[in-house]
Every structure is written in C-alpha cells, then in structure tokens.
C-alpha cells in the first residue's frame, strides 16, 4: 500500500498530540512514509516535536519524522497538508472575546465580533500557506481546520476558485454524532446524517440508523428527559458542559431539527452574555487548562524519555476526523463526512456561491455533497443573515473597507445595533494593528 507524506501546519497546536495519536492508531488504514510538523513558533514546536519523537519511537518506529520552522522543508513532496494554525495566538483570542463583552455582546472565538476579528487575522496567513504549499506540492490535498472556518473557506474560495484540493472541515458535527452515540448507546459510525447550514451554524434534519430509521425523534425525547452531554464529558471544561446542556433549551424553543451547539450564541445572545465572565473568558480557561495540560504533559514525557503512560489526548474526534477524511480521499472510500463546500444548489433556495456545511461522500475526486433541497423560512432567514455577515466580512478584508466591516457587524445577530457595531469595530481595529489590513 502507498505510504503518504503529511505535514501538520500549526504543529505546536494544543490539538497536535491528539492528531499524532490518531495517525498512529490508523497506521494500517492510512500508512505514513513521512510526517513533518511545521510552525512559526519554534518554542511551541520544539515541545510538541520532542514529545512526538518519543511517541513515534515507541508507537510508529518506521515513520520518518521531523519538525521544522522552515516552509521549504515542510512543504516539499507532500501528499496531505493538515492545517490548524492560530494567527495571533491565545492572547489575541482573549481580546476577541473580551472586547465585544465590554459592549454587552457575545465574546466568542468564531461567532460574532470575535469571530470577525479572528477571521480578518486568519485570511492573510491562510492565503500565504496555500501559495507556499502550491509552490512545492501542487497536487497535495490541503485539509483545513483553521478557524473561523466559515470565513477562511469563503476567502480561500475567492482567491483559489479553481483549486479543487482545498477542503475546509469542522469537527463539531462529529463531536455531536459521537455524543448522540453516547446518548443512544450506539456506534456513531453507523449513523447517516442529513445536515445543512453554514459552519458553526447548522442543523441535523435526520439521523438514519443502518436500517434507515430516523433517530432524530428518539434523540429529542432523550434530551428532553436526560439533558445532553458531550461524548467525552469527563474530560471537558465546565463551559463546554454548559454549551451541550443548551441543546435541550434550543430543542424546547426550536424543536424541529437538532441544532449545532454554536447556535446558542445566535438564538440567545443576551442570555449568553449574562453568563459570560468578562474577566475570564474561554481563552483564559483554555490557557489555564488545555494549553497548560498539553504542554506540561509533553515536557513530562520528554523528561521521562517514554510516552508509555501518556494521557495527552483530550478529544479523539478532532484527530480521528481529519485522518479519516484523508484516508477516505486517499483510498477513494466514499465515506460520509459533514464538510464545507460551495452551495451550488445543495440548499436550493439560498445563493449558489455560499460556502455551506453538508454531508458529502469523500473520495479520490474530493467531496460529492448531498443536497437538502428547499429550506423553510426560519432557517433561510437565519442562514441568509449570517451568510451576508460572512460575505461582508470577507469583502471588508479584500476591499480594506471600514464600511463593509461595519455592515458585517451590524448584520451579525450577536450585535445588531449599529452604534455598538461601530464602537466594537473601532476597538478591534486598534487591537488588531499589524494583523488586519488597514480599513479605510
Ligand atoms: P494554538 O494557538 O495552540 O495552536 C496554533 C499553532 O499555530 C501555534 O503553535 C502557532 O504558533 C501556530 N501558527 C500561527 N500562525 C501560523 C502560521 N502562519 N503558520 C504556521 N503555524 C502558525 O491553537 P489551538 O487552540 O490548538 O487551535 C489551532 C487551530 O485549530 C485554531 O485555528 C482553532 O480554531 C482550530 N480548530 C478548529 C477546529 C474546527 O472544528 N474547525 C477544531 C479545533 C481547532
Ligand atoms: C469545536 C469547534 C472548533 C473549536 C473547538 C475548540 O470542536 O468545532 O471549531 O476550535 O471546538 O474550542 P475551544 O474553545 O475548546 O478552543
Ligand atoms: Mn469547528
């Protein structure tokens, strides 16, 4: 069987050890020849890279492995690029979350004004990454997790419209499928989902079991009765448990479909703000918990010289999804995943050039997405408002337009008020100097 060359961009990410573990777990299905970790931050990269050396020596001895901060080394002869970078790091994430909260608006890394700020930072680095990859590996598949995935997907689709080997993905649908599996005591790999929406803004309309029976009504009843928890609840921070618990509230108010957890910010912006601590946001929680735990554990393994007793992985869904997506493409498996693609009639009553999230069969020629037809007025209205926000955010970046940025934020359901939008925008511009284009 062919062995593949993979590079992980953002090799110093808190998610990288989990990804290494998934690659190792799936070495028979998706065998690697060479793996390179690439990051612009040498210090973060070295901690995870030294951990990886020990981990692979024990778990994947025939793998060629290296870590680097040199793009030329990273992108040579690559079959798959797995990308998960964070422009500006957690320090900027913290500002993305805290600045909107000062004005009474949701502070979240991918939703609302925070997602807007992060999006305008991510675009430049993501375009650069694609150009760098294409300079040395023109046929490599680029599978991207970098957030905010909706904005990144829209921007890349504009700059590289003919590049059919860029695929943007999100692990939250898989997290939800696994969580339904836990709730029903069933294997989530047997589920066939029907899903539509935008990234972090979608719904499961049906979830078929292997006999074609729709499990959505059963799931709803069980959520009403027992609430809802993530599949890996025991490893989750409190804010994630609160987020999953909101699914019950969303299903009481909007019972038709199973909502993506991120819809809580758009359905209930005021309630979410009332529950957020403006001095300790998710970025603080991540720095205090996940980041600290991952880096401490990697250092401990390096000191011990063995990864035998490591528990550095905190969420299997993330690593498993990207490896399975790559494998399904590499071996033309045509397995089903929920991914981000251009609409072109998949949701038949919204515009064609929207980047939507739907189920697709993934094979050697990429995604073959499954259409959902016409959607009802409520979902159409919700999606079109959010889509207009996303489009205007990306316009603002490319046209360096203050006015488009203001319109984008005004359209976002977490803001709405034009005066608030202007104040938040002005403060975000100050905070993002050097990361954003200068808006005029
Ligand atoms: P992190 O800050 O721990 O890791 C990101 C790494 O990227 C850092 O080591 C940083 O130095 C590096 N980096 C920044 N700019 C870079 C560039 N231009 N080139 C190469 N490396 C660069 O952040 P994290 O919390 O581990 O998340 C990583 C990314 O993955 C984020 O964008 C996050 O939002 C995303 N993510 C997405 C999903 C999804 O569902 N789509 C799921 C999980 C994480
Ligand atoms: C989910 C989302 C991702 C997000 C991740 C981590 O999996 O789909 O887009 O990056 O959660 O969020 P956190 O707040 O834990 O960093
Ligand atoms: Mn996501």
CATH superfamily name of the domain at 4-169 and 285-314?
Answer: NAD(P)-binding Rossmann-like Domain
Query: SSE string, helix = H, strand = E?
Result: EHEHEHEHHEHEHEEHHEHHHHEEEHHH
What radius of gyration results from the CA coordinates? Answer: 21 Å
What portion of the residues fall into strands of 2 or more residues? 15-25%
- Describe the strand arrangement of the main beta sheet, using strand numbers: 3-2-1-4-5-6-10-11-12
The helix count comes to 16
The CA-CA distance between the termini, in Å, is 54 Å
Bound compounds, each kind once, are: nicotinamide-adenine-dinucleotide, 6-O-phosphono-alpha-D-glucopyranose, manganese (II) ion
Q: Mean pLDDT across all residues, rounded? A: 97
What is the approximate shape?
globular
Q: How would you describe what is shown here?
A:
Belongs to the glycosyl hydrolase 4 family. This is 6-phospho-alpha-glucosidase. Keywords: Cobalt, Glycosidase, Hydrolase, Iron, Manganese, Metal-binding, NAD, Nickel. The active site is at residues 171, 262. Pfam families: Glyco_hydro_4 (PF02056), Glyco_hydro_4C (PF11975). A hairpin with a 2-residue loop joins strand 11 and strand 12. The chain contains 16 helices and twelve strands. Helix content is 50%, strand content 15%. The model has no long low-confidence stretch (mean pLDDT 97). With 440 residues, the chain is an alpha/beta fold. It has helices spanning 16-25, 42-59, 71-74, 89-102, 112-136, 149-159, 172-184, 216-226, 238-253, 264-267, 269-275, 282-304, 316-330, 377-399, 402-411, 418-431; strands at 4-9, 32-38, 64-68, 80-83, 141-144, 166-169, 192-198, 201-208, 258-259, 335-342, 355-363, 366-369. The chain has a nine-stranded mixed beta sheet with strand order 3-2-1-4-5-6-10-11-12. Strands 7-8-9 form a three-stranded antiparallel beta sheet. The chain is globular and about 55 Å long. The longest helix is centred in the first third of the chain and has 25 residues, at 112-136. It has a domain at 4-169 and 285-314: NAD(P)-binding Rossmann-like Domain (Rossmann fold, 3-Layer(aba) Sandwich), CATH 3.40.50.720. It starts with a strand and ends in a 9-residue tail after the last helix. It binds nicotinamide-adenine-dinucleotide, 6-O-phosphono-alpha-D-glucopyranose and manganese (II) ion. Residues 149, 170-172, 200 line the site of manganese (II) ion.
